[in-house]
Write a structure and sequence with these properties.
It contains 4 helices and 10 strands; from the N terminus they run αααββββββββαββ. By secondary structure, the chain is α+β, with helices and mostly antiparallel strands. The two termini are 31 Å apart.
Length: 245
């Protein structure tokens, strides 16, 4: 969520006590008028923020939404001022992770993503997957690939990989792409789930997962894995971007 949407959530929560003091039972009359006025002001603030947010999101892009031309927009995630798509394909008997990242502002930005096997899935990896860190040029789109270091797989098995991402932009950047995509959520700490469950609140799940079905044709893969990064589109580019391979 952006700061406007976050503020709207807090304003909605503020409506509840205002409504109670304005129209609830056993409330002194001197509190009712002020609560009604505050309730109306919050409603106007919500309407204004909602309209502002809608106007910003419905603005036409200054530069083309290149990432949406390459992959299904439903598979695109948003973090900070970056859109990204991350998928794992099978090529030459190897499992290859392909990450496409698109800068949403006209200044340079930094993007990072980490991938980790969930639960017992670590037994299929020879070593942890290195983190991806890259610098995006203004309004640019980059492609990063890495081959996973898999152990020999003798029987069919499932491997779930959890993804987390972050993005930081240089000050002064102007937004040049306005489409909203799926937000990246953080996984909930199991200890937090247990502690809140004791209080009668269930909070669990979260995070972005990629699930793979491994079989005997997978692995052993390469002996050394590193990310390879290429900028595939910039505002000066006229040729269409290549497909993710």
């Amino acid at each position: 969520m952006n700061w406007r949407e976050t503020l709207m959530v807090f304003l909605v929560l503020g409506l509840i006590p205002c409504a109670i003091f304005a129209w609830g039972g056993n409330i002194a009359d001197e509190y009712r008028l002020g609560s009604k006025v505050l309730f109306g002001l919050i409603l106007m603030a919500l309407a204004g923020l909602g309209w502002w947010n809608w106007r910003l999101q419905s603005k036409p892009d200054i530069f083309p939404d290149v990432l949406a031309q390459i992959v299904d927009p439903r598979s695109i995630f948003e973090v900070g001022d970056s859109h990204f798509h991350l998928g794992i394909i099978k090529q030459d008997g190897r499992r290859r992770a392909v990450c496409l990242v698109q800068n949403l502002v006209d200044s340079s930005s930094r993007f990072s993503v980490s991938m980790s096997a969930k639960g017992s899935g670590t037994r299929f990896l020879k070593s942890p997957i290195p983190n991806l860190e890259l610098v995006l040029p203004p309004a640019g789109v980059a492609k990063a690939i890495i081959d996973l270091l898999l152990k020999d797989v003798t029987t069919a098995a499932d491997l779930a990989i959890r993804i987390s991402a972050a993005s930081a932009t240089e000050p002064g950047g102007r937004r040049i792409r306005f489409k909203r995509r799926n937000a990246v959520t953080k996984a909930v700490n199991p200890a937090l789930t247990v502690s809140l469950l004791a209080a009668g609140v269930l909070v669990a799940g979260g995070g972005v997962l990629i699930e793979l079905e491994l079989n005997s044709t997978d692995g052993p893969g390469v002996d050394d894995a590193r990310w390879t990064v290429d900028v595939i589109w910039e505002p000066k580019t006229t040729a269409p971007p290549p497909l993710p391979t």
